[in-house]
Amino acid sequence: MKRTPLASTRKRPAPSGAGGPRLAMGNGSATLILLGLLLCCSTRTAFAVDIADHLRFFAAIEDRSTGSPGCNEAAEYILQAFQNSGLTSIETQKFFLPLARLNSASITLSGESWPLYPWGPNLAVLPKTPPAGLSGELVDAGSGSFTSFNGRKIEGAIVLMDLESDKNWLNAAMLGARALIFYSGDGATRHQFEQKNTPTPLTFPRFWVPAATATALRAAAAEAATALVQSDTRWDHGTARNIFAVVEGTNPDLAEEAVLLEAPYDAPSPVLGLAPGADQATSIAMLLHLAEFLAAHPPERSVLFAATAGSGQALAGMREFIWSATGRRKDLAREERTIRDRREELKTLRDLLTSPDPLALESADAQNRVWNFVVERAKDAADTWGRRIQDESAGQARADDEGGNRPQSASAPAPELPARENPRVSALVLAHPGRGTRCRGTRTGPRPDPPGSSRAPGGTG
Predict the structure, then answer these.
(1) Could you tell me the CATH number of the domain that includes residue 148?
(2) Of 310, 327, 344, which residue sits at a domain end?
C-alpha cells in the first residue's frame, strides 16, 4: 500500500491521487458510536482494555482543553493504546494555534480562598484582574433581573448570579459591578453555559464556581462580606497534535482505499481550567475500541484512525488533516522549502547575536539582520507595554473608590526583554543614541537605520 507518513508541523502527507490512499470519510461521532455499539453486540472478542476503562480514563482528566497538560496526557494514552493494539504506521501531526491559558484564579474571604474558573474570552478578552485583584462587597443577585437589584448598591460589587439567568449578567455589567461569578447546581446544561458567551470584546471579568463553593459564597453574601477576586490569564502561541494509525487492508484490489474513522480527544469548555468533555471522551473511547478490534480482524479496505485535537476551535485538527490530505504536491514542497529556509535564517541570526560583539560586525548584511531583529523586538516590547497599561487602567477604573475619585495609577514598569546568551543584545534597543524606533501605530522618531545602510552615518550612500 503506497502511503506517505503523516509528518509534523506543516510537513504534509501525500494528497489523494498523488501516491496516497483514497479516503472515504464518515459523517462524525454518531457513525463512530454506532459502529462501536454494533461491534459490542455482535462479537465475543476478548479486548485487552474494556471500552468502559477507556471512557473512565478520559473522563477522569479534569481539564482536557487543547494544549493543556491533561490534553497531553490523553495524547500519550492514545499513542500507547494504538501500540498495544498492534496498529502500524503510527504518526503524529503537530500544528500551531492560539491557546487561552489559566495561570491562577481565586476568590478570598476572611483569609480563606476558593478556586474560580474564568469564563472563556469575550471575543478575545480574557477575565484578568490587576495583580492586587478586585475587591468588593458580595451581592447575590439570583436570577439577575433588574428587580433583584432593587435597594442594592451594585456599582463596585462582586455579583453572584444563578446560571439559570438567561443573559441577565449584562444587567450587572451595566450597573457597574466589578466582576460576576455564576453558580449552578448539578443540573446545569450546556445551553445555559453557551447562552452566556458574547462576541463582544467586553472588559468585564466573569467566572463560574461549582455548587459547594457557591454555598459558601452565598452565605457570605447574606452577611454583606467583602471578597477579593484575582485572576491571571493570558493568550499563548501553542501547539496541538493529531494522532494517526493504520490497519492495512487484506484485499490487494481494495487496500489502496482507506476508510477514515476520526474522533476528537481534547475537549472544549466555556470556562478555563475545567474541560472533562463527556461527548469527546465517549468518541475517543469508541475509536480505541474499534482500533483494537479491527487490528485483530482487518477488513478488506485499509482503515485510517485519526484522533484529532482542536475540536473546540472550529475543528482545527481536522482542518489541518484535510489540508494535508488534499494539498497538491507542489504546495507541500513549497512549504517544506519555506520551513527549511526559515530554519537556516534563524540559525544564522542566532550565530550573529551570540557573537562577541553584535554591534561590531563587519558585513553590512549581518548588521542589517541584527538591526532588523532589534526593531522587531522593540515593536513587541511596545505592544507588551501598551497592553499592560490598558489592563492596569481597566483594573484601576474598576477599583476606584465609591466616591468616584480616580487616583492616578503608577507608571507601568518597562517590560523586560527575555534573557539571551549575550546580554548586550537585550540592550541594543537603547544603544542607538539620537534615534527613535517605529512601533506599531506610534512613531517616537525616525526608524533607526541599520549601520552600513545608505542613510546611516558612515553608510555607502
Answers:
(1) 3.50.30
(2) 327
Reading the chain (461 residues) residue by residue, the pLDDT tens digits are 333 333 333 333 333 333 444 544 444 555 555 555 555 555 555 566 789 999 999 999 999 999 999 999 999 999 999 999 988 789 999 999 999 999 999 999 999 999 999 998 998 999 999 999 999 999 999 999 999 999 999 999 999 999 999 999 999 999 999 999 999 988 888 899 999 999 889 999 999 999 999 999 999 999 999 999 999 999 999 999 999 999 999 999 998 999 999 999 999 999 999 999 999 999 999 999 999 999 999 999 999 999 999 999 999 999 999 988 888 888 878 888 998 998 999 899 898 888 888 877 888 888 888 888 888 889 988 888 887 787 677 666 656 654 455 444 444 444 444 444 444 333 333 333 333 333 333 334 444 444 444 444 444 43
Instruction: Please state the φ and ψ torsions of residue 75, each to the nearest 5 degrees.
Output: -65, -45
Cα within 13 Å of Cα(4), Cβ side: 20
404: Cβ contacts below 8 Å, ≥ 6 apart: none
Q: Are residues 264 and 359 in the same domain?
A: no
Work out how many domains the chain is built from and give that number: 3
Q: What is the span of the domain harbouring residue 90?
A: 22-97+239-327
| Backbone φ, ψ for residue 246 (5° rounding) | -130, 140
- Residue 389: in which H helix or E strand, if any? helix 364-398
Q: How far is CA 219 from CA 106, 188, 402, in A?
A: 17, 21, 24
Question: Is 116 in contact with 207 (CB distance < 8 Å)?
Answer: yes
**CA gap 130, 415 in Å, rounded:** 16
CATH number at residue 37: 3.40.630.10
